[in-house]
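Job type: complex structure
Entries:
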Amino acid sequence: MSKERKAELQRKLAMTAVPRPPADLLDRIKADIPADVGMTPERDPVLWRSTLVMRVAASLMLLVTTGLVTWRVLQPDVRPSAPVTAQRERIVPAITRSVTRPAEEKVEAPPVAETASRVQASPIVVPQSVPVAAPAKPAASMVESAEADEVRDFAALEDSSVTQTAVMESTRRADAADSRAERAAERITVTAGAPAVTEVAASAPASAPLPPPPPPPAMAAQRTTIGKAARKELASGNRGLFGVSVDRSEFARVQQSLAAGQRPADVDVEAIINHFAMHMPSAESPFLLTTELTSAPMDPERLLLRVSVDTGKAAPTDAARLSVTFSSDAIVDARRLGRSEALTTGFVSKEPATATLIYELTPRATLPREAVVATVELEWPAHKNSVTIIADQASAWSRATRRHRLSTLAGLWAESLAQPSTNPRLESLARQLQATLPDEGLITDLEKAIEASVRLPR
Amino acid sequence: MMLPDEARSDEKSLLAAIRAGDRTAAEELVERTYEAVFASICRLCGDRELAADLTQETYQKAWAALPRFDGRSQLFTWLYRIAYTTFLNHIRRPRRVTSLDEPDAIEVRDERPSAEAMLAESEEAGRLRNAVLQLPEDLRFTVTAHFWGGLPVREIAEIESITTVAIRKRLHKAFTILESILDEEVR
C-alpha cells in the first residue's frame, strides 16, 4: 500500500461529516439519569473473599464426592456382599443430600418468607379503597401461585425418587407458606389506609412447563443428568425472567390468524410485548434494569411505565428478585398489560434472558412533579438496583425510546385483539413509528399486523 | 465534546460526585460527552435518528455499569466502549429477531428508501463506512475508536490490553483490507 493511498484513507476516515444531535437528545438522556445514580453499594472485600473461599471449598468437596461416588458405582467388581451394601447405603443418602440441597434452599427462604416479610416490613400496603390492577391477585394468592410454580418446577426438574423428597418437602413448606401468606394478607387488611401501593413483589423466573421425565436410570446416570437437562429446558423455553412470557412463536401465530382473515383468540399479550421489546443485553454488566415512563399514546390521562430486565453474562442464580411498587400518593390504578399471572420464583440460567413489563397507570388528578410514582427494585446476588421513578420523569410517548414505543404499542394492540374491533388510531401510531424510526422489518411487521386487524370484519 | 487530558483530575472529582449520588454531576458528565458519543455512533451507523436512540441507550447502560467502572481509563473511553457495544448489539439484533418469525414475514419489506439512502452524506463516505463495517472485529474497533471515536492509540491499547505497537499494526492491516474492499467495489 502506497503512502499516498494510506494518507488518503486516513484523511477520508477523519473527515467523515457528522450531523448535529437532535435538539431534544440532551433532555432525553438527562431524563434517564436514575435518582440514585452511582449509589449501588460497593462490594464488601472481606465478605467477597470469604464467600469466594467458601465457594472454592464447596466446589472441591463436590468434586471429590462426585469422583468418589462415580468410582464406587462404576467399579466392575462390586459384589453385593454385606459390607459393600452397607457402604452403598451410606453413599446413596449422600447423593440425595447433594442433589436436593439446592432445591431445599430454593424453596425454603426466598419466595414466601421474603415476600411476606416484604409486605410486613413495607409501610406501603394495598388499601381497600385503592382499585388494584384488574386481574391482580391478592398478596396471599400471589404467594401461593409462586409457591405452586416452585413445586411444579421441581417436580419436573428432578426426575427421580431421589428428589421426590424435595418435592414433598417443598409441598410441606408451601403449606406452611400459605398460612404465612394468609397472615401477611391479614396484616394488609389491618393496615389498609396507609400510604399505598398496587402490587407486585416477586422473585425470578423460568417456570416453563417441562415434558414428563424419563424413567430413572441407574443412580450414577441420574447424578450426571439431573439439573443439566432440566436447566436446558428452562433456558430454551418460552418463559423469560420472572415468569414473564417470551413465547417466540406467538407473533407468528397472530400473523397467520390475521392473514387468514380471523381475529386471533387468546393472544399472549406479554409474549407480543417481549417480541417487540427484544433482548438488549448489556456487555458491561451481568444484567441491566431499564425503566421508562411516558404518557399513553391513546389516552393522555394515563401513563405507561416500561420495566425491562436483560441479562448478558449473568451467573445462574435462584435468588434474583424483581419488585415494582406503586405509590398511591401518585397513582390511583396500575395495571400490567397482558398480565396472566404473578411474577414467579425459580431458576435463572446463564443463557441471556429478558423480561419487559408494561404497566398502564392512572395518575391522580393533581400530580406534583416530584411525586414518587413507583419504585422498581432488582436484586441479584451481590447486586441490588433500585430505581425510584418520579412524575417529573414522564415524557411524551412520541419522544420515548424506540424500544418503549414499539413494545407499548404492540402491547396495547395485542390487548385490543380481544375486543370486537381494533382502534384505527393504533394504525396511525404504527405508521408514525414507521415514518420516524429506522426499521429493519420489525415496525413494518407490526404496522401490517395492526392494519390487518383494523380491516377485520366485526 | 471529548474530555481533554488536562481535565483528568476534574474528571475524577466528577466521577466521585456522581458516585456520591450527585445528579447535577451526572448531568454535567452528559453535557460534556453526549455530542462526542452521538458523533461516534452516527459515524458508525450513518443515521441521525438511530444514533440518537443508541446514544440514549448508551447512557442508560452507563448508569447501570457505573459502580463497576474502575477509573483506569478515561470516562469517555469507557463510554465509547459501551456505545460501540450498543451499536454492535443493534446491528446484530435484526438477524436474531427475523430468524424467529415465519419465513414469509421477512419478505414483507418497506418499499420506501432505506435508512442509508436517506443519509445526508456523500456516496463515497457511505462506501467507506460500509467497508469499515466489513473489517474483522478487532480491526473494526481499532479503526472506529481511533478515527470516529477520537481515542488516542495509547487509550485504545489500554482498553484492548495490548501494546501501542500492536494497535499501529492493526491500523496498518486495516488500511490494507480497506483498500482492497474499496478497490473491489470500484471494479
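Summary: Chain A touches chain B through 62 residues (CB under 8 Å). The radius of gyration of chain A is 26 Å.
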